[in-house]
Write a structure and sequence with these properties.
The structure holds 2 protein chains of 2 kinds. Chain A is an alpha/beta fold. Helix content of chain A is 42%, strand content 8%. Chain A has a domain at 15-56 and 83-121 and 147-324: 3-Layer(aba) Sandwich (Rossmann fold), CATH 3.40.50.970. Chain A has 14 helices and 6 strands. In chain A, helix 4 packs antiparallel against helix 13 and helix 7 (124-131) packs across helix 14 (326-349). Chain A is globular. By secondary structure, chain B is an alpha/beta fold. In chain B, the strands form 3 sheets. Chain B has a 7-stranded mixed beta sheet, sandwiched between helices. In chain B, strands 9-11-10-13-14 form a 5-stranded mixed beta sheet, with helices on both faces. In chain B, strand 10, helix 8 (211-227) and strand 11 (231-235) form a beta-alpha-beta unit.
């Protein structure tokens, strides 16, 4: 029963952060779940800084929200093909995590990654153009929604196979360690990924070799429609780290500041050579993908989701703390919507990839006897040359 | 030129490439302290240290994926998968990731990775340790699959594979490790995607790769001596890309072909070769393309059954004679194999 599962995990969803007081904390202490309150900021200066951060977070989260809503619309208009998984409800987790990374750090993620690409400061026009399958897309139209990639911004993919990105991210961390560089790798995944072999194999190797990597579980309590309780014998997912003597923590993913603080601890740990597992709880506000009506959720559960909408929560906080007001937030919304329309227009105007480029990306090194045969062509041409 | 074993040629090439390029590093199960299940990496841990020769946990999916990710950031890992049978545990990383990363992201990241792995039966290792499943990888655009049959080719193809910017599956063979041949001293990489005519002839084209290319050459040489047969032998060397023109041009000359393969016949590598000949040399064929391949059974343990399941030299000679008989070729004398 999904609704019951959520209530059983109510402590998880409200937990602000665990006692990840120091990088050196032992596995035992970091894996003991705590309901401690968020770290208190001290002094007026810190408060101002935090307030400014809150407004920045709100802008970025709202931008991701409206971007994703536009994706859903474009998908139903058949401007976006394939699968389309949205970050709706996960915006606070996305911006909190990405804010903890340096521009030179690397990110590997899964197929629900539009928001991450935006938060890595990749041009949203190039992201939308990729979803539209156009030449100006980040992956030149070869990847689509699930396979965003931008070497300059160190987003090393969007991966569509559940768990596929974990060994890859671990390998990137190995390369950093091999060259004694200071970057870290962050590798995000969904809750369902913790049950695949690649999760175990990757965390084991990372801890054995002390690689600079943070694994992040975005726990939205659902695979597609299967709950965590029905798929994970230990539903408190951060506890899996204990099997590898790896420090871990769980944080409320509806609170961007809490996520940022927890992610900073995790990233600092990884940078010092101690890999880390961070579980971020949040709520997927819609179905698994755009086409999923989410009939596995009860009416009551859907109603309760509104309490977990991170953007609404942050708007309420901004207004109650008089950091903003309803009119200003509405003005921001109007501006964001206008920008999203520009982005969608750019994507739609971008050219479809030319068919002459079909064979350009099979191999990086030129290779003899590589086939360039189109489906209807015979294997050998009239001169006897193989296609 | 130095006479050395296939095993030694691979070992020496790995070592010289590690000396040449510090981004070349080795990963695999038991390759360091244990020095490799088949001792290919003997001595390399002691020489290069555990940063460059990494013993991994028994986690093929994990360490193969780790090598792919490391390659994306510029390392040139050479992974050992103890036998090709175990590669099935890593097939998601090989097929869904290594083969896709360059194209799927529009050419932004290269994967300069080599996966070394031996196939081959005949060692009484039973059903799960005797397979020849290189076809699974040869099927996939984005991968390159090479299969040397001699120590010299093992060296040249390993040099090419390590210096290539794409993922290369380097197929070794248990039965070839102790075979010997002359290996040139120079470091001249092979051209991946090219087949090799290892013996010129006019009566029939005999095609193989890996162990069966070795067998093909040996039998063609024997039959030249004993039967005055002039058989052309093609060693495919590369299964993807496949050098179709070399095959077709040879068959246009000889008008007949026999394909030798250690994998199963149905849907096997030879099926692709036969289809290629049908497409490119149909009017030149004087007999159907004959395939000599493993019996369609999981490999048995018992020696009598294992020997019966695997293509033997006798099977090859019979297929050659039957094909020559079908085209009316006169042999110099009657063979005891008939």
């Amino acid at each position: 029963m999904p609704a019951a599962s959520h209530r059983e995990d109510a402590d998880l969803t409200t937990a602000k952060r665990t006692t990840t007081s120091s990088v050196a904390s032992t596995t035992k202490s970091t894996t003991t779940r705590s309901k401690s309150t968020p770290k208190k900021t001290k002094g007026a200066e810190a408060t101002t800084q935090l307030d400014s951060q809150l407004l920045d977070f709100y802008r970025e989260m709202l931008f991701i929200r409206r971007f994703e809503e536009r994706c859903a619309r474009s998908y139903t208009q058949a401007l976006i093909g394939g699968y389309c998984h949205l970050n709706l409800g996960e915006e606070a987790a996305v911006v909190g995590l990405m804010s903890a990374l340096e521009p030179t750090d690397y990110l590997f993620t899964n197929y629900r990654e539009h928001g991450y690409a935006i938060a890595r400061n990749i041009d949203p026009k190039a992201i939308m153009a990729e979803l539209y399958g156009r030449v100006d897309g980040v992956s030149k139209g070869w990847g689509g929604s699930m396979h965003l990639f931008d070497l300059d911004h160190r987003l090393l993919g969007g991966y569509g196979i559940v768990g596929g990105q974990l060994p890859l991210a671990t390998g990137a961390a190995l390369a950093i360690d091999y060259h004694r560089q200071s970057e870290v790798v962050m590798c995000t995944m969904g809750d369902g990924t913790t049950n695949i072999g690649a999760f175990h194999e990757s965390l084991n190797i990372a801890q054995l070799w002390k690689l600079p990597i943070v694994y992040v579980i975005i726990n939205n309590f659902l695979g597609m429609g299967t709950t965590v309780e029905r798929s994970s014998a230990e539903p408190h997912l951060y506890k899996r780290a204990a099997a590898y003597q790896m420090p871990s923590a769980v944080v409320d993913g509806t609170d961007a500041v809490a996520v940022l603080e927890a992610a900073r601890v995790a990233v600092a740990s990884a940078r010092s050579g101690q890999p880390y597992l961070l579980e971020v709880t949040c709520h997927r506000l819609r179905g698994h993908s755009v086409v999923d009506p989410a009939k596995y959720r009860s009416a009551q559960e859907v109603e309760e989701l509104t309490h977990f909408d991170p953007i609404q929560l942050l708007a309420d906080q901004l207004i109650s703390r008089q950091l903003s007001d309803a009119a200003s937030l509405e003005a921001l919304n109007t501006a964001v919507l206008a920008r999203i329309e520009e982005i969608a227009a750019f994507a739609e105007a971008s050219a479809h990839p030319d068919v002459s480029t079909l064979f350009d990306y099979t191999y990086a090194s030129p290779v003899v006897n590589d086939s360039r045969r189109l489906p209807g062509q015979a294997l050998f041409d009239e001169t006897g040359a193989a296609r | 030129m130095t006479l050395m074993s296939y095993r030694q040629a691979i070992h020496d090439t790995l070592r010289s490439e590690m000396l040449r390029d510090e981004n070349v590093m080795l990963l695999g199960e038991e390759i360091g302290v244990f020095e490799g299940s088949y001792k290919i990496t003997a001595g390399l841990l002691a020489e290069f240290g555990d940063k460059r020769v990494r013993d991994t946990p028994i986690a093929e999916e994990g360490f193969t994926g780790v090598a792919i990710g490391a390659a994306m950031l510029g390392l040139r890992p050479v992974v050992e998968i103890m036998t090709i049978n175990f590669s099935l545990i890593a097939i998601d990383q090989i097929v869904n990731h290594a083969a896709k990363i360059y194209g799927m992201f529009g050419g932004q990241a290269k994967v300069p990775l080599v996966i070394r792995t031996p196939g081959g039966g005949g060692q009484q290792l039973g059903a799960t340790h005797s397979q020849n499943i290189e076809l699974y990888y040869a099927f996939v655009p984005g991968l390159k699959v090479v299969a040397p049959s001699t120590p010299a080719d093992a060296k040249a193809l390993m040099l090419a594979a390590i210096r290539d910017d794409d993922p290369v599956l380097f197929l070794e063979n248990l039965a070839l490790y102790n075979t010997k041949g002359e290996v040139p001293a120079h470091d001249e990489p092979a051209v991946i995607g090219k087949a090799k005519i290892t013996r010129e002839g006019s009566h029939l084209t005999l095609i193989g790769y890996s162990r069966m290319a070795y067998v093909a050459k040996k039998i063609a040489d024997q039959l030249a001596d004993s039967e005055h047969l002039d058989i052309e032998v093609i060693d495919l060397c590369s299964l993807r890309p496949l050098d179709r023109e070399t095959i077709v041009n040879s068959v246009k000359k000889t008008h007949a072909a026999v394909m030798l393969e250690d994998d199963w016949l149905t849907y096997g590598i030879g099926a692709e070769i036969a289809a290629t000949i049908s497409d490119g040399a149909f009017d030149y064929l004087d007999a159907p393309v004959r395939r000599v391949a493993m019996a369609e059974v999981p490999m048995p343990y018992a020696k009598s059954l294992e020997s019966a399941a695997m293509p033997s030299e006798h099977d090859v000679i019979q297929a050659i004679y039957q094909t020559l008989d079908a085209i009316g070729h006169r042999r110099s004398k009657t063979s005891p194999h008939d």
